[in-house]
Amino acid sequence: MASGNKMKSHKASRRRLRVTRNGKLLRTQGGVRHLMTARSPKRKRNLRKKATLELTAIVKRFKIAHYNA
Question: How far apart are CA 47 and CA 18, in angstroms?
Fold first, then answer.
């Protein structure tokens, strides 16, 4: 008797990415954890914003991540 294996969700992608209404993926920008005093206020302000992702490998992984959700 063959048992059907379930696909595991990619937990890291589930935590880090979010989908917009148009289907784009949003991610937080890196480089905001420490050493912020050397950066200009404009740069720090722009780093707080979300960035969009359009890499096909990441999109594919995200779809797998929400397979079980």
Answer: 17
Cα distance between residue 53 and residue 45, in whole Å: 20
Given a cut of 60, whether residue 68 has pLDDT beyond it is no
Q: Dihedrals φ, ψ of 38, to 5°? A: -80, -10
| C-alpha distances out from residue 6 to 11, 17, 30, 54, 58, Å | 15, 22, 33, 27, 20
Phi, psi of 30 (to 5 degrees): -85, 170
More confident call, 69 vs 49: 49
Fold of 11-65: Factor Xa Inhibitor (4.10.410)
Vertex 13 angle, CA 59 and 49, to 5°: 85
